[in-house]
Specification:
Layout lengths: L1 E6 L3 H14 L5 E7 L3 E3 L4 H5 L9 E3 H4 L5 E5 L2 E5 L4 E4 L4 E3 L2 E4 L3 E3 L7 H4 L6 H21 L8 E6 L3 H20 L7 E6 L11 H13 L3 E3 L4 E5 L2 E4 L4 E3 L2 E4 L3 E3 L1 H5 L10 E2 L12 E3 L4 E2 L13 H20 L12 E5 L5 E5 L2 E5 H18 L2 H8 L9
Parallel strand pairs: 1-2, 1-9, 2-5, 9-20, 11-12, 11-17, 12-13, 19-21
Antiparallel strand pairs: 3-4, 6-7, 7-8, 10-18, 14-15, 15-16, 22-23, 23-24
Helix pairs in contact: 1-9, 10-11
The chain binds flavin-adenine dinucleotide.
Flavin-adenine dinucleotide (FAD) binds next to helix 1, strand 2, helix 6 and helix 9.
């Protein structure tokens, strides 16, 4: 029996596993093994709604037991601790050793704190379900404690700061404006006592995207009373707040850091050669070191298209496309066929900014408002249909579940 091991079943790993299973189900000498530290697949584009108590957790978590039921895939719910390329095996937290014929590294990314003093210690991350839930619960706790101090007149002003005005930071700041207002009502606090800021080191929010998008986002956030602090690099974080590079103190009760992404540290810890963002350089077939048995994709891979200066951005759609190409190339290696080249293509994106408002770029056309939210829902539904049978996809999508708050 030859093992094809997919390490990590996020957007890229899951697509790769499902495609491999489809092609290899009548070849019993190959076993598709998926290893993930979580029992669920996380739909990150809706994570901001978990952090702000808009969605119950089941709306962003697809249990692998559902996704892999009736599939010839062996799912191992364990954390991988070592990748031993020279021995062609992986070691898990329980000490199990899993050998492979082919390995796909799809272990995603972590928050990068860029070595800023205090940033990791005194801020909340926003990449995983536990982080989103921790933030949501902590905010509620802060409001509850402030309410308890109300009769004494000792309640303090509350300042929530989101660091990094990329996609996640902008989405989270928008949604937090609504969550903080709801908490104000729940704990009878005056909204004037609360400040919500979005801090960005660069000269504009959503930098790198078309100007029109950052202008629309800025207008929306200002309408939601989010204070925008651009050209403000965080130099230090203390329990009392931030200190910017020019020495200005920004008091903050809660800091959420969305500004940095680094590939899973396990790659570097396992002695693999990584770039400055911790990723593995891959060739046009998404092979690491041009090695026929080792592939990397999504947030683990650094792929620079010919003529481009920078690697393809870490996005769900990119990881999914790469998962498809890796599955094709493993099949090609097995059956001695020509390999497929990865051609980057991103059709667009949607940036939701509170409630029924989003900004979308699709087919080179920028639009905002309710239709962009409809597009977001459509993308979500299409994704669910691509990984689940239709009935189950609808079950996870059903809107009435989203009205519940856990
Ligand atoms: C809050 C947020 C919002 C986002 N919104 C969007 C969006 O709207 N659109 C978009 O295109 N992209 C979005 N992204 C980016 C997108 O989620 C990533 O680019 C994408 O998930 C990368 O896919 P991947 O397959 O490389 O890794 P992931 O999807 O991150 O999957 C990695 C998998 O590896 C598992 N894993 C990690 N370490 C181990 C270990 N040691 N052992 C076993 N398993 C392990 C994890 O549990 C996970 O299942 C968002 C990201 C975040 C954090």
């Amino acid at each position: 029996m030859k093992n094809i091991v997919i390490a990590g079943a996020g957007f890229g790993g899951l697509r790769c596993a499902l495609d491999l299973e489809k092609s290899l189900k009548s070849f019993p000498e190959y076993k598709v093994i998926v290893i993930d530290q979580n029992p669920y697949h996380l739909y990150t584009p809706s994570l901001y709604e978990i952090a702000t108590a808009q969605l119950p957790r089941r709306c962003v978590c697809l249990p692998y037991s559902e996704v892999f039921s009736n599939k010839k895939i062996t799912f191992i719910h364990q954390q991988i601790k070592h990748i031993k390329v020279s021995e062609k095996l992986l070691e898990t937290e329980s000490g199990d050793k899993i050998s492979y014929e082919f390995l796909v590294l799809a272990l995603g990314a972590r928050t990068d704190y860029f070595g800023v003093p205090g940033l990791e210690k005194y801020s909340f991350g926003f990449k995983s379900l536990p982080e989103a839930l921790k933030l949501r619960n902590y905010l509620e706790e802060v409001f509850k404690n402030t309410k308890e101090k109300l009769p004494t007149g000792l309640e303090e002003d509350l300042s929530v700061v989101v660091g990094g005005a990329g996609f996640s930071g902008v989405e989270l700041a928008g949604e937090l404006s609504g969550y903080l207002s709801r908490l104000c009502r729940k704990y009878s606090l005056r909204p004037e006592k609360i400040t919500l800021s979005l801090v960005e080191a660069r000269g504009e929010i959503l930098s790198g995207l078309p100007k029109k998008i950052s202008v629309l986002a800025k207008k929306r956030l200002e309408k939601l009373k989010v204070r925008l602090l651009i050209k403000t690099a965080i130099a230090q974080v203390k329990p009392s707040g931030l200190v910017s590079a020019d020495g200005t103190a920004i008091p903050s009760t809660v800091v959420v850091w969305t500004g940095g992404v680094r590939a899973n540290p396990l790659l570097e810890q396992s002695g693999l050669e990584v770039d400055k963002k911790g990723r593995l350089s891959v060739d046009e077939n998404l092979r690491y070191l041009k090695e026929g048995s080792l592939f990397a994709l999504g947030d683990n891979a650094s792929f620079i298209a010919s003529g481009a200066n920078t690697a393809v951005l870490g996005q769900a759609e990119v990881a999914i496309d790469q998962g498809r190409v890796v599955a094709k190339n493993i099949i090609a290696e097995i059956f001695g066929r020509p390999l497929t080249k990865y051609q980057p293509k991103v059709s667009g994106f949607v940036i939701p900014i509170k409630g029924n408002y989003a900004i979308a770029l699709a087919f080179n056309f920028i639009f905002s408002g309710y239709f962009a939210i409809v597009l977001k829902k459509f993308i979500e539904l299409r994704y669910l249909f691509s990984v689940l049978p239709p009935f189950k996809a609808l079950k996870f999508f059903r809107p009435e579940a989203k009205l519940l708050i856990e």
